[in-house]
Design a protein that fits this description.
- With 501 residues, the protein is an alpha/beta fold.
- 46% of the residues lie in helices and 16% in strands.
- It has 16 helices and 16 strands.
- A 4-stranded parallel sheet has the order 2-1-3-4, sandwiched between helices. A 3-stranded mixed sheet has the order 9-11-10, with helices on one face. Strands 12-15-16 form a 3-stranded mixed sheet.
- Strand 7 and strand 8 form a beta hairpin.
- The chain is flat, with a radius of gyration of 29 Å.
């Protein structure tokens, strides 16, 4: 079999200061001195990983024994990761493929050439990590000076341009109507007997929306904890100091005029509103809505409330986490009546009576019905084999490509910060925040869809446990349910099951 030469070119994004794919190919052609070649080009992809269509095609052709030599314009065109590059070199050597960098003149046939190649890839990765470190340092430097660091403004505020220390940024300005709602919320919660349910029900009944939705408990709790609303005086300073927060301003600056920003501490992973130890508090140049006395009263009440640990295991029904109210879509919770029998209640109705409820549904009866439907579904399918893996699923593949593109855009934004002006830094901060939100949404969807892909192994597990349902443990039943069902919407009149298969 005649093997061919390959030219690989990559360009993350078209920029004036970056070399085009066409120019890269011309340099590589000179290296081949007129010999024939096959082109592999990836446009708009980052070099930080190997998730690039044409690079994967090239590696596949190498493993098929079709390639004799790979030529690139520069080392970082093919990889910026030491681990990825090392793995590629092993593949090249295993298939007797020569690697050539036209600008760095590497000869991989000698030990010295391979050593120099590894040194260069180390510096390529160092460059990328240095850029990331510079961006991180810029973020903390700007946040310590009271700049707003992007993201959606808190409820009750809008953004307006402002100049701080000669730098263009934005500050929060009050939205009069929403500010009234925030004040009302804090005043209600400060009363000794007031609960989350009282407040969410009050605003729901009045038809007041928060961020375009009905007020729910997590949103309410987050708002009550947020120091952006408080008039920062010495009492506020002492509170955060006692909690172990890092305060960038002097005590003498806490004169009851400014609001506050609370930023995530450098080495702190916990939620900044829940765990104040090591978080960074900065005075901010915006109008405030809540007095320090009122805010601290609410904050201390929140701290004294019994905390329900996240991620509690289901104990009352193996349907937990899947069953939703057929009217409002909120979760159904299994509770016991005075006779010890379990029945289902709509959590939205329990929260603020904002839903008529699901009616009278006994947990045991719904469990029996769902089990029967799962058995029928498996019989209907007759255990089809040959399902794709999660990675091969077309929608997941498309999402993965979209994720690569978003991460590439983020990388270019971060690269743009090197030596950038303060105006550009502000713009990049905002764009990176937007892109990061998009990235997280894509990651969440990939995770959800990956769990919904049916595999032969999953079906075998399901069949084994459906056959001995009476002897299956509580956790085994939950695993079987998760393998088959996405969601169950139920009322006393109807049950709708959305299947994963």
């Amino acid at each position: 079999m005649n093997r061919v030469n390959a030219i690989y070119a990559r360009q993350s994004v078209d920029r004036v200061d970056s070399i085009s794919i066409e120019s890269q190919i011309e340099f590589c052609k000179y290296e081949l001195k007129g010999a024939s070649f096959k082109e592999y080009t990836d446009r708009g992809y980052s070099g930080k990983n190997t998730s690039r269509p044409q690079l994967q095609q090239l590696l596949g052709d190498i493993e098929k024994g079709l390639i004799a030599k790979v030529v690139v314009y520069k080392l970082d065109r093919i990889s910026r990761s030491i681990l990825d590059f090392s793995n590629m070199m092993e593949t090249f050597q295993a298939h007797h493929v020569e690697f050539v960098s036209s600008t760095e003149k590497f000869d991989t046939s000698t030990p010295m050439g391979r050593a120099m190649l590894n040194i260069c890839i180390v510096f390529a990765q160092l460059e990328r990590e240095t850029i990331q470190k510079r961006v991180s340092d810029a973020y903390y430097s700007r946040s310590q000076r009271g700049f707003r660091m992007g993201g959606r403004p808190p409820y009750g505020y809008r953004l307006e341009p402002i100049m701080i220390q000669g730098i263009h940024t934005k500050r929060l300005v009050q939205h009069p109507q929403e500010a009234t709602h925030v004040q009302e919320m804090f005043e209600m919660y400060s009363k000794p007997g007031a609960s989350y349910g009282d407040i969410t029900r009050y605003f729901t009944e009045k038809g007041i929306k928060f961020y375009g939705k009905e007020l729910i408990r997590p949103t309410l709790a987050q708002m009550l904890r947020n120091p952006v609303y408080v008039r920062a005086d010495l009492d506020v300073y002492r509170f955060f100091k006692n909690q172990g927060s890092i305060i960038t301003n002097l005590p003498s600056e806490f004169v009851g005029v400014n609001g506050c920003y609370l930023y995530q501490g450098r080495d702190v992973k916990e939620d900044k509103l829940q765990h104040l130890q090591g978080q960074m508090l900065v005075l901010a140049p915006h109008e405030v809505m809540i007095s320090s006395d009122l805010w601290l009263t609410c904050r201390l009440k929140l701290m004294n409330n019994m905390k329900i640990p996240a991620g509690r295991k289901a104990v009352n029904t193996w349907l937990a986490g899947k069953i939703k109210c057929g009217h409002c879509g909120y979760a159904l919770m299994s509770v016991r009546n005075r006779y010890g029998r379990q029945y289902l209640r709509c959590t939205k109705r329990l929260n603020n009576k904002g839903c008529p409820g699901c009616g009278k549904i006994y947990t045991e009866e719904l469990e029996e019905y769902v089990y029967g439907q799962m058995v029928a579904k498996i019989r209907e399918m007759q255990m089809p084999l040959g399902y794709a893996t999660a990675q091969e699923h077309p929608k997941i593949q498309a999402l993965s490509q979209e994720l690569d593109q978003v991460e590439t855009q983020i990388e270019h934004m971060l690269t743009a910060l090197a030596g950038a002006s303060d105006t550009l830094v502000s713009y990049v901060d905002m764009k990176v925040a937007e892109l990061d939100r998009s990235r997280q949404e894509i990651v969440d969807e990939i995770t959800i869809r990956s769990t919904q892909v049916a595999t032969p192994e999953r079906l075998e597990y399901i069949l084994a446990h459906l056959g001995d349902w009476a002897g299956a443990s509580f956790e085994d039943r939950r695993l079987v349910l998760d393998g088959l069902v996405s969601i169950i919407k139920a009322t006393d009149c109807s049950v709708e099951i959305q299947w994963k298969l």
